Amino acid sequence: MARLSPETISDLKATAHAMADVAREATLLHFRAAGLSAETKEQDRFDPVTVADRLSEERMRAVLAARRPQDGILGEEYGSQSGQSGLTWVLDPIDGTRGYLAGTPTWGVLISVADESGPIYGLIDQPYIRERFEGGFGVARVVGPSGEAALRCRPARPMAEAILLSTFPEVGTAAEHAAFRRVADRVRLVRYGMDCYGYALIAAGQIDLVIEAGLQAYDVQAPIAVIEAAGGIMTDWQGRPSHAGGQVLAAANAAIHAEALALLNG
């Protein structure tokens, strides 16, 4: 990780929270609003984007333009912008737009900053519930309606007692789905449709695993920062860094991570 001054770290954290604040306001303008429509980004499947996705990212980018114009940006809706500082902000203005359209409170805003080694700090913000999960620079905490609490992943327990979350029941390709089922068939409970909120629940010590495929960098970098700060592990299905997305295995501890890796790989 790049060596950053205390002043820079303080500014990065303040900038991230400023972006989360404006994104929270932008997304709540349209959440559960009558007549909210969506376009699809792909022809062969429904991959929605709404006015709220675009407004959220626009407002976050405006914060960066005012506060840290030297940094790079990678955002889901407006792509990449180069910088000169060696730091890049990775933004998902609404992770879980399908859930947003359905009115469920499991979508979120993902904000992280990365150096050449990967994400070093991140936020998972759920605007409607008003929960904000923060990880990196020595911080691992959640702030919400119940106050502030430390984030800490749960300790190891047998796979037969574990809780596994994923967004879609049909995980990836047929081969990827078969690998997923090898884990799903061994745990106590499997739940679907959580989007980024599932990763927050690992950091909060509520669940043991999230397994997904077909993800992008902006889907995973904030969760990586938050989960690692809380003592968890997030890799691809071969145990390698997952900063670019693709196949992702998030685990509460090293023991269940190793067991899940072994099952995923047959």
Provide a concise account of the structure shown.
With 266 residues, the protein is an alpha+beta fold.
Structure description:
With 266 residues, the protein is α+β, with helices and mostly antiparallel strands. The chain folds into 2 domains: 6-150, Fructose-1,6-Bisphosphatase, Chain A, domain 1 (2-Layer Sandwich); 159-264, 3-Layer(aba) Sandwich (D-Maltodextrin-Binding Protein, domain 2), CATH 3.40.190.80. It is built from 7 helices and 15 strands. The protein has helices spanning 6-28, 51-67, 97-102, 174-184, 197-203, 217-229, 254-264, and strands at residues 39-40, 48-49, 72-75, 79-81, 88-95, 108-115, 118-126, 131-136, 139-144, 147-150, 163-166, 189-192, 209-216, 233-235, 245-251. The strands form 3 sheets. The chain has an 8-stranded mixed beta sheet with strand order 4-3-5-6-7-8-9-10, sandwiched between helices. The protein has a 5-stranded mixed beta sheet with strand order 12-11-13-15-14, with helices on both faces. Strand 3 (72-75) and strand 4 form a beta hairpin. The mean pLDDT is 95.
Strand content: 25-35%
Helix content: 25-40%
- Outline the low-pLDDT stretches: none
Mean pLDDT: 95
Rg value: 18 Å
- CATH-defined superfamily of the largest domain: Fructose-1,6-Bisphosphatase, subunit A, domain 1
H/E element order? HEEHEEEHEEEEEEHEHEHEEH
Please tell me what the overall shape is.
Answer: globular
Which structural class fits the helix and strand makeup? alpha+beta
Ends: how far apart?
34 Å
Number of domains: 2
Largest sheet: 8 strands, mixed
Number of strands: 15
Identify the strand order in the major beta sheet: 4-3-5-6-7-8-9-10
CATH architectural name of the largest domain: 2-Layer Sandwich
CATH topology of the largest domain: Fructose-1,6-Bisphosphatase, Chain A, domain 1
What's the level 1 CATH class of the largest domain?
Alpha Beta
Number of helices: 7
